[in-house]
Structures are given as structure tokens and as C-alpha cells.
């Protein structure tokens, strides 16, 4: 249960009802993340615009890399709501629940490419300690592994976005799957 007032779909009026209807039409559902922001309908719109741009817009990062970054950040922040949703999205690309289980426990054991391992390390380090030493060296290694400056920028933007949204979700008590291990199967 959220720690602040939220407005359910049935009770939405005016601009919020329009926003909710648009989200249902374009995304197929109304997520708890949307409802936690229901007191600021314009904020929901701007938030979703940023999300769509970062996760689906033009980028040198592949979609699965973006989901992978989001999952690593969310694991670091103990945001099980985002881990659940974005690991499902990641597995849409992988189609391998065993690999996903390994990734969720320890991404270094999930058979990732060097490029993906470096992106995960960057995600972890920027989340745990944003001023970590060795940042410049890590960015150089990422670029040496085939990603350009735009990809590095996009990775940082996605890492920052997930840290933002994890704090909304965890900080305001957005409901997620609270069952043991978050409902994940580690076949």
C-alpha cells in the first residue's frame, strides 16, 4: 500500500482521467508506478515521455542492454517492483529463464559479452557510489568494447532514470511482488 494518497482509475477525473485512458490505450494497462504520481497528472506525462525516449528512442544501445541496465540498478536499490517488470522485459529478448536467474543472482555469471558486463559494472558502480574512482578508466573500456560517446551518455541517462524511479517506488511504497524471491524462477 502506498504511503501517500493515490487515485484509482475509477475515481480519476479531468486531466488525470485523460492521462490514465492514454496510458491504458498506449501501454495496455495502468501500472502502480503511474498511480503513485496521480496527484500530478502533468508529471505522469513528462515522466512517461522521458521513459519512452530513454527505453525506446533511437540509441546505439540495444533494447535488451537498456533493460539489463535497469535491472542492475533496481537490484542495487532493492526495488523489487522494477526488478520484476524489467527482468520480464529482459527475458523477452533472452527467452532463457535459467540465464535470467543467473543474471538476477550475479550478472557476472550470466554469460554476458564483455560490452554488457562493462555496462552492468557501470550501472552498479554509479548506483552504489556515484563518485567511484576509476570512472574514466571504465568509460574508456566501454568505448574500447565498441560503444561510442552517445552510448555512454545513454547508459548514464538510463542509470540515472532508474535510480530516480527506484526512489519513487521504494520511497513511496509502491506495491510489488513481495513473495519470496520476488516471484522469480531460477530454473
Low-confidence stretches: 177-187
Q: How many whole angstroms does the radius of gyration measure?
A: 17 Å
SSE order, as H and E? HHHHHHHHH
Q: Percent of residues in helical segments?
A: 55-70%
% residues in beta strands: under 5%
Query: What is the name of the CATH class of the largest domain?
Result: Mainly Alpha
- Mean pLDDT comes to 93
- Terminal residue distance: 30 Å
The 3D shape can be described as: elongated
Number of helices: 9
Could you please describe the fold and organization of this structure?
By secondary structure, this protein is mainly alpha-helical. It has 2 domains: 9-56, no CATH class; 63-183, Up-down Bundle (AhpD-like), CATH 1.20.1290. The protein is 64% helix and 0% strand. The protein has helices spanning 14-27, 32-35, 41-56, 63-76, 80-94, 97-105, 114-128, 135-144, 149-171.
Quick take:
The protein is mostly helical and 187 residues long. It has 9 helices and no strands. Helix 4 packs antiparallel against helix 5 and helix 7 (114-128) crosses helix 9.
Descriptors:
single chain; 187 residues; mainly alpha; AhpD-like; 9 helices; disordered C terminus
Which helices and strands, and how do they pair?
Blueprint: H1 14-27, H2 32-35, H3 41-56, H4 63-76, H5 80-94, H6 97-105, H7 114-128, H8 135-144, H9 149-171
Helix pairs in contact: 4-5, 4-7, 4-9, 5-6, 7-8, 7-9
